Amino acid sequence: MSLAHLVLFAGLLSLVILASSSSSPGSRSILRDISGENADQRDRAVELNSSNFDSVLRDTPAKYAVVEFFAHWCPACRNYKPHYEKVARLFNGPDAIHPGIVLMTRVDCAMKTNTKLCDRFSVSHYPMLFWGPPTKFVSGSGEPKKEKSEIVVIDDARTAERLLNWINKQTQSSYGLEDKKFENEHVRTNITDYKQISQGVYDIEEATGEAFDIILSNKAIKSSETSASFIRFIQLLAAHHASKRCRKGAAEILVNYDDLCPSGKCSYESSGGKDTLGTFPICGKDVPRGYYMFCRGSRNETRGFSCGLWVLFHSLSVRIEDGESHFAFTSICDFVNNFFMCDECRLHFNDMCLSVKTPFKKARDFVLWVWSTHNKVNERLMKDEASLGTGDPEFPKIIWPPRELCPSCYLSSDEKSIEWDEDNVYKFLKNYYGPKLVSLYKEKSVVGSKEETVLATTEDLTVATNALVVPIGAALAIAVASCAFGALACYWRTQQKNRKPRRSWN
Ligand code: FAD
Question: What's the CA gap between 380 and 391, in Å, rounded?
């Protein structure tokens, strides 16, 4: 073989290596892969590597994680895979029987790029399984080798049954390999558990992603009116969504909107590699994940999306400024009217919107309006669900918040004609859908890099301190600092459009 041949061969080899490493999927594409159309044939354990390890474990809503360190050349690992997958099938992917509880992952230590990662965990044999809270695996969150680390080695996981037994002991659960979805559902209402709302942040991401997907699949932006309504709602999300990745995704849609939907006419099918709205998943590529947490029902067909939408609306209402209250009100009303594809819900909600005769001037009034409107829906559905038996038996409709959750919200002890202390209701809602909702999320971002923590804190403060005069425009500019001109131009343009009254609420 000549030198020229050798050089050519080496060049080809490096191209192949480069191609295979550059095509190694990032965290989101991996999560998307397992939720794809042929999901049944696919592995459920999420393949991690040195570049996606931290982000996947930081972003997961799951309470626990299992990380399997293996080597693809190891025959014992190959034989173990079906056992591991059998357990992963219970917890991972859109068809998971018990979603959002344990994230099952694997790392191939035979890949050179993962050597440092495997060293960090002192992997001594294959397969070697670790257990712990996902964020504790993230670099910088403590050394796994230290004695008191919350990360432990799973010492009895030889078969699927033994691994699941081990998990059951840790979680004090009784999951079984033969469990069927919702068959033995253990979801129960616990109205006194104030902390549960901290999982709601994942549900508002889910509901936002699902709403966006519904709009895309129904090609629901059909006219200049629906286009303007879409833009206004996306503006609200870009400025005030409680999830940072949804704020970012919404801002990116706004910046690119002129190209994606010229004159309000959106292209939905990609042709010639051109971007479409679908190219910009609003809360990132791994959302919707396919399940709800705070809004998970005890039956397949209950709660979920509509519950997530309510939580989204409440969480938006507590984040806005006085000067934005009417804008937020019309944005949400128009969004429901144009894009919520439940006819009865849409019509009832629209009636309640139309009954508002004077524009909102105070954010407090808007927060209380969303709350009382939701209670009116609860009151109506209480009767319907009782007579038709269509409600979730574990989550019967109630007038909310119940006394157990907010005793000071009640002025009287008469359950038949409730008298509210609206100042206390307002305080309660601000805290519940404000800091409480994002408490888990913030905790996680603190585990991330210092830079990210500073950014998250600054952004959260921007929203929380109510310090800005034109917060929607300003927060939007912060969210898309890198392309501020595009965003502001887009914002200015839609403000101009908004000046022409489209509908009077008076
Ligand atoms: P949800 O009512 O969805 O509430 C979600 C969570 O919000 C609750 O678990 C609770 O923690 C909290 N919550 C409850 N009440 C309040 C309140 N007043 N203020 C603040 N937080 C509260 N369904 C119909 O059958 N007919 C309709 O006309 C209809 N209209 C709807 C209109 C809108 C805009 C939306 C978003 C949904 C509508 N739905 C309607 C669906 C219905 O309201 C519920 O979302 C669905 O039945 C699921 O109920 P859930 O038990 O999950 O609780």
Answer: 12
The two counts, helices (H) then strands (E), for the chain are 19, 5
| 77 flagged as catalytic | yes
Tell me how far CA of residue 8 lies from CA of 11, 16, 17, in angstroms.
5, 12, 14
Residue bearing the CA closest to ligand 1, atom 41: 306
Output Rg (C-alpha) for the chain, integer angstroms.
25
Q: Give percent of the chain above pLDDT 70.
A: 75
Determine if ligand 1 sits within 6 Å of the CB of residue 306: yes
Binning pLDDT at 50, 70 and 90, where does residue 143 land?
Answer: low
pTM: 0.78
Helix (H) / strand (E) element for 200: namely helix 200-217
- Whether the CB-CB separation of 87 and 104 falls below 8 Å is answered with yes
pLDDT at 202 over 90: yes
Best residue for ligand 1 mutational test, from 193, 210, 310, 315 (most atoms within 8 Å of Cβ): 310
Give the model's pLDDT for residue 183: 62
Residue 336 CB–ligand 1 contact under 6 Å? yes
User: How far is 385 from 493, CA to CA, in rounded Å?
Assistant: 45
- Residue 175's pLDDT band (cuts 50, 70, 90): very high
